[in-house]
Amino acid sequence: MAEDRKVKLAVQNVSKTFRVRGTMGESDSLLPVLRNLSFDVYENEIVSLIGESGCGKTTLLRIVQGLIRLDAGTIRVDGNAVGVPGRDRGFVFQQSSLLPWRTARQNVEFGLELSGVPKRERGEKSRELLKLVGLAHATEQYPHELSGGMQQRVNLARAMAIDPAILLMDEPFSALDAQTREVLQRELLRIQAEANKTILFVTHDLDEAIYLSNRVIVLGAKPGRIKKIIEIPFGRNRPELPQMRGEPEFQRIRAEMWDLIRNTPASAAVAA
Amino acid sequence: MLDKTIPHAPDHVLPSADPNATAGSTVVPDTVEEIGPAPRSNATRWIRLASIFIVLIGWELAGRQVNPLFMSYPSAIATSAMRLIASGELGAALLESLKTLLVGFVVSSAFGICVGLAIGRYRTVEAATDWVINALYATPLVAIVPLVTLWFGLGFQAKLFIVFIMTLFPVLINTSAGVRNVPAQLIELGNAFAANEWQIFTKIILPSALPYMMTGLRLGIGRAIIGMVVAEFFTAITGLGALIIKYGNQYDTASMFVPIFVLMLLGIALSVTVKRMEDWIAPWKARQGD
User: Fold this and answer.
1) Helix (H, G, I), strand (E, B) or coil at B165
2) Domains and CATH numbers, chain A
3) pTM, rounded to two decimals
4) DSSP letter at B8?
5) Is A241 at the interface with chain B, CB within 8 A?
6) Is A114 in contact with B194 (Cβ distance < 8 A)?
7) pLDDT for B122 beyond 50
8) Distance CA B155, CA A140 (A)
9) pLDDT at residue B41 in the model
């Protein structure tokens, strides 16, 4: 990959250990979750983090957002080291986390309000974004009037409204039904192409990772570490996922990832 | 787009919209079952009206047989009511009572909401205050009326204090419960978007706790009325409570019933008002409940 591309997010030697409180008189134990992770995300790129559950992929995403403090290492966004949450990063939650007393438009304006953006400007921006995510007709509807897929569209628009350097997406389509998920995956590619967004995407769905990404980072578990960074050789104009699945190259990459994830470390092999 | 619900899709088709379904030529089979909320039937309304009518008639007939010292009956109460309204006595008493009730309720609610917010949000405040709140909430507050008299005498202040203390706890406890029940993911949304503490309070906690606060106010208004009457019995002998005492002492039972009915109507009216406000302020809650 060309070295002259702009690095939007740099994850450098990040480690994290949780202290698990002992129950019933046991002493506390230490649970290493991430060990010495380093990677870059370039401008306009979609990078997916994938790995079995417990590999710390969501923890890593939350560390990047600043919701969890890291023990060691550095997170840089546009070259600046960050440690606390900031509106230079936009977070798209797994559960839509929309404020139920706000309409779709008002939810999108949430981050802008926090920054003190004037009302008129907020309105223009939110309408524009809701149009981009395909909800121009539903700006004044409340979350409970929206389907799960529509809620996730608002969730995405809300994160985009603050114009972050990078979007962090935490398994945003995992709670949706299969058809809606495919529609939204396709929509995300369209939106990303239109709005030139840089995205770090956490998923446990191999097909989703391949379909959406320029690169996929495969994590190993206990503690979480990078097993391999896989370049996805498909261009930006991708056919629909069912069609992609038929491609030999797609199947080869999928098989490779599956092996990487299933391939358990030596410690587990001894236990077995 | 597969995930979109079709906007304005009709849930049901009105019979008039169907050209074949003119009167007399309906082809809907008997097996078609109704779904959706049941319409409030006329039968229910008639049964209720009949019930009210029968009870009033029964009371009138039975009441006339009893010594008027012990029991009155509707027509006598109505006559007394006309007399009390005409003389202005009822209006003056009602005004006097309402003054205490509203001032005490508003001040107490404002105070209870502020303290409740702090208790719900900050563990230290909760740990420092929850024992005293639980203890006072468990105490029948009528028991402290003599103490209040010692502190504030028999005037307006004593009445105000009793209404205040009666209203306080339901408002306070419900508000703090509302704050504690703000979904964690909404607080996390605020954190992720780098909202400061004030923004988290005003944009997430307050609106989320609002329905709980309104429930607290609804419970509080009922207790405020109890506090008001108790205060009017034992401290300042004024207002509707004083009317009850006065006509009780005069053995004028029919007149005694008049302020009792006014209190009943007052309780209903205020609860309905708060309930309406609840639906108006937090409509998403009511609609979710459907």
Assistant:
1) helix
2) 1-88+201-272 (3.40.50.300)
3) 0.78
4) T
5) no
6) yes
7) yes
8) 53
9) 73
pLDDT at position B25 over 80: no
What is the bridge-based pairing of β-strands A72-77 and A7-20?
A: antiparallel
B68-285, which class in CATH? mainly alpha
Q: Assess contact for A256 and A230: CB atoms under 8 A.
A: yes
Q: Rounded to 5, what percent of chain A is helix, strand, coil?
A: 40, 25, 35
Q: At what angle do helices B42-65 and B74-86 cross, to 10 degrees?
A: 90
Average pLDDT of chain B, as a whole number: 84
Q: Is B18 on the interface with A (CB under 8 A)?
A: no
Of B5, B7, B199, the CB nearest to A114: B199
- Give the pLDDT score at B287: 47
Cα(B30)–Cα(A259) distance, integer angstroms: 61
- Boundaries of every domain in chain B: 68-285
Q: Are strands A80-81 and A72-77 parallel, antiparallel or unpaired?
A: antiparallel
Residue A13 has φ and ψ, to the nearest 5°, of 50, 45
SS3 of residue A173 by DSSP: coil
- Are the beta carbons of B193 and A148 separated by less than 8 Å? no
CA distance B153 to B150: 6
Question: Which residues in chain A touch residue B203, judged by CB atoms under 8 angstroms apart?
Answer: 99, 110, 113-114
* ipTM tops 0.85: yes
Contacts of A176 in chain B (CB under 8 A): 3
